[in-house]
Please model this.
Amino acid sequence: MSGSTSSSSSPLDQSSSNNSKELRTEKLEGLTENKCNYSVKSESDTDDESLITDEEYKRYSDAVKASDGFDVPRLTGGDFYYGGGIVPLRMCDYYRTTLEPFCVAAMNHYNQDKKTNYEFVRLIKANDQVLGCFINYYLTIEGRTSENSTKIFEAIVTESLGDPEVQFCREKAPPTETGNAEGSSGK
Model:
């Protein structure tokens, strides 16, 4: 019985590994085709280019703490992004179109929770965080009521194999001069 399990698992493992590589390749090609201006690092690039400095990491860490991950600097280290780091996305038509349903879901979540009637206007910026088969999107969006009152919102929406799941949606707090002024003074 164990012999049949090992012989049948090998082709499946190879098939899912190949499918995974194909999906990643298609996604990278899609980003290039949509002119998001991401450079793809090849395996021949040196590892020195993928390292971030202690200063960069401190600046990043302080920004995550100060903004809950919504306002973080772009780092140079590619390996950092695949290790659960929060990464600012370059806004292009591809991301605006892809993330629009997530923004609408976030506004609907906020309206249901707060008994309001905001509608999604536009995606201002987005960050992502890859965690295995899940991606957390940190969305900064503009919403408007029928009376033309606008507000800026922050939402975390998780994408997995199914529909997007809104973790929360809240009004973006205005910048403060007190509190963690050191972490936000450079912005």
